[in-house]
Structures are given as C-alpha cells and as structure tokens.
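Regression test case RT-17, inverse folding.

Input:
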C-alpha cells in the first residue's frame, strides 16, 4: 500500500515534469536522473537486464511505437519512462515439432473421448471394484 502511494506520487510528479520533453537523455541531464538503456528486451523474457523482473515494462515496450516517450509506468521495482529506439522482429521458428505433438495429443484425446462416449451411451456398468475389493 505504501509502495503504491509512493509510486502514485512519483507518477504525478513525472507527468508534470515531462509535458514538453522530447528526449529522455536531455531530461535526465537536466534533472540528474538515471537514464539507462536496456538491450535485447524480449516479450518471452520479462527480465530486463540491470533492472530485474519487470513484466509490465516489457509489455509496454513491445507495444509502444518507435521513438515515442511513454507515460510513467509503475513497475515492480520503480517507476519507469521508456522510449523504444529500435525493434527487431523475432526470427520465425519452425513449429512443425509443436504441431506434430499437438496433433498426436488431440488424436489420443479424441480416441479416449469417443470410447467414453460409447461406454456412456451403452450404459455399461463396471462392477470390477465390487468383485475384487
């Protein structure tokens, strides 16, 4: 609760200070704030090097247009303002193995479900438990 209130105060201060900011580096120099650069931020990995686990910031970085400064983002460890300078599209991966595994899993499940549907429709009663125990 205390952490959230502190973050809300910082967000309101940043919103006031960043009304006419067009470059984060200039803002950092003017206000003696830490301006860092995170490289290789990926949607599949919510860990940002030098910062820690920040899933909300990573998600915002994936969605934010290039060279646009974000609004203040409340993260797990701090309040962040980000700007995406470069975005590389991930390489296309070969999904044939995953498709094959899913196909076999669905086939096995469909066979199991079909068998159970036939057993239910035939009103088969299983009394093995009563006989052996």
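Golden output:
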């Amino acid at each position: 609760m205390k952490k959230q209130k502190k973050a809300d105060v910082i967000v309101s201060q940043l919103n006031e200070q960043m009304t006419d900011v067009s470059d984060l580096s200039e803002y950092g120099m003017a206000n003696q704030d830490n301006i860092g650069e995170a490289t290789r931020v990926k949607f599949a990995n919510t860990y940002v090097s030098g910062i820690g686990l920040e899933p909300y910031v990573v998600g915002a970085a994936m969605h934010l247009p290039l060279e646009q400064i974000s609004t203040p983002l409340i993260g797990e460890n701090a309040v962040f303002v980000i700007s995406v300078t470069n975005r590389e599209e991930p390489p296309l991966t070969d999904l044939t193995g995953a498709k094959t595994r899913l196909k076999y899993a669905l086939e096995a499940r469909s066979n199991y479900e079909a068998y159970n549907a036939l057993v239910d429709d035939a009103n088969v009663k299983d009394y093995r438990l009563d006989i052996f125990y």
